[in-house]
Write a structure and sequence with these properties.
Strand order of the largest sheet: 9-18-19-23-22-20
Largest sheet: 6 strands, antiparallel, barrel
Number of helices: 5
Structural class: mainly beta
Number of strands: 30
Distance between the termini: 69 Å
Oligomer: single chain
Helix content: 10-25%
Length: about 425
């Protein structure tokens, strides 16, 4: 082999070795990164053991602006190679700056000292009705005008996911009213206020007449959504949390912007068993009448729906209040969920298989598997309608069921209860 080829071969080996080392270091760093959450909550007045099995150490400072802290400010040294015990006597906020191996910058962690909390787990099935703010554009279409030409007046102006809030200064209340506004426009340009990606702006759209002489924009719209789910908890002030995830539009996957929402009494009348590759579902019977209203929905968020319980739910609570479990207190291993697949709330066995303390998707912090033979026989695993089922471990409320793993009907995801309580 020539000297030139030998040099090139060595150069290739060095580059390959360097790339391998960088990849390995990055993988280890990312693995460590996920083990410590960016926000840690601890209870006021209670010693809290933190053991994340990470070779990191650093300092804890009181306050928020770490960059402005002088060397005279008192700090507390922590070393996670040995585990850390923290205790704060009052509600407060701290910053913890960590370094891997005491050398490499790792992450800045918010430590929030919170008041201890008790919640009443529920597991009741609920009928859900939400009305959007304005109308939601779910698609852009086209039609034939009176000349036989294919037209799409709203194309490149409106887009799926837009909320139309008002037209020519008049508030859009519902789908029927909006359609009437367009039909009565006589082809005149409409000035619309829309909410797109949390920003309100104005656009102009000119309707066109279809072959029946009706003025149209060529858009598909929606103003409400219905379904069933599970009530997760009731707080001491009779507020509630449910679902563990938001209500998204089925076509656009957009989180529906809530104008008003209602909980209704529902009766489970059927179960479609889930199987690998095909999620099952609970079928509920709901009468959308005032006599069946059991709560008001005030928030639709990525962490769930929240609101105020009606007197009936409060009066008929099945379980007593229990403590919540913070993220660092949850363990892999046996746990239980509460759901009402047979009509009444009941405990079923599960296994918490994985914990993702630092996950961009807050609805997937827990990986769980149904192990209860009765529930597996009834449902095949986690099915639609079970979202919000409380997860209980060691006598504490850990979180709520959120999603099924489509390829493994017995397994799914959950959200940590502390993430739901952000709302």
């Amino acid at each position: 082999m020539s000297e030139y080829k030998i040099k090139n071969y060595r150069r290739f080996l060095y580059i390959f070795l360097a790339a391998t080392i960088v990849t390995l270091i990055t993988a280890v760093y990312m693995d460590y990164w996920k083990k410590v959450p960016s926000t840690i909550k601890i209870r006021a007045g209670v010693e809290q053991q933190l053991d994340f099995h990470v070779p990191a150490s650093g300092e804890i400072y009181q306050g928020e602006a770490v960059e402005s802290i002088s060397t005279q400010v008192q700090s507390l040294h922590v070393d996670f190679t040995k585990g850390v015990t923290l205790k704060a006597n009052q509600i407060d906020h701290y910053i913890m700056n960590l370094k891997l191996f005491g050398i490499f910058p790792y992450k800045s962690v918010d430590i929030q000292v919170i008041q201890d909390k008790m919640l009443t787990p529920s597991g009741l099935p609920i009928g859900i009705y939400v009305k959007t703010e304005g109308v939601l554009v779910v698609g852009i279409g086209e039609f034939k005008n009176q000349n036989g030409d294919t037209v799409s007046p709203a194309n490149y102006i409106l887009q799926a996911g837009d909320y139309i809030l008002n037209v020519n200064g008049e508030k859009v209340e519902n789908k029927k009213q909006f359609i009437s506004m367009v039909e009565n426009s006589e082809g005149k340009e409409l000035i619309m206020s829309i909410n797109r990606n949390e920003e309100v702006t104005e656009v102009k759209v000119k309707p066109e007449s279809n072959q029946n002489g009706e003025w149209k924009l060529g858009i598909w719209i929606r103003d409400n959504a219905q379904g069933i789910g599970t009530l997760t908890y009731i707080d001491e002030d009779n507020t509630f949390g449910a679902l563990g995830h938001g209500i998204n539009d089925i076509d656009t996957s957009t989180l529906m912007q809530l104008e008003e929402g209602t909980l209704y009494k529902t009766e489970i009348i059927g179960i479609t068993r889930g199987k690998d590759g095909s999620p099952g579902e609970l079928t509920g019977y709901i009468e959308y009448e005032n006599d069946n209203i059991i709560g008001e929905i005030t928030k639709n968020t990525p962490e769930g729906i929240f609101g105020i319980c009606g007197e009936e739910i409060v009066a008929n609570k099945v379980y007593e209040p229990i403590p919540i479990a913070l993220k660092q207190e949850v363990e892999t291993g046996p746990a239980k969920i509460i759901c009402s697949v047979t009509g009444e709330p009941k405990f079923y066995d599960i296994e918490i298989e994985e914990l993702h303390l630092e996950n961009d998707n807050v609805n997937r912090g827990l990986v769980i598997k149904i192990t209860d033979e009765e529930l597996l026989t009834l449902t095949g695993g986690i099915i639609q309608g079970m979202s919000g089922s409380p997860i209980i471990q060691n006598g504490k409320l850990v979180g709520a069921v959120t999603h099924v793993l489509v390829q493994d009907a017995a397994s799914g995801y959950g959200i940590f209860i502390e993430n739901m309580l952000v709302q």
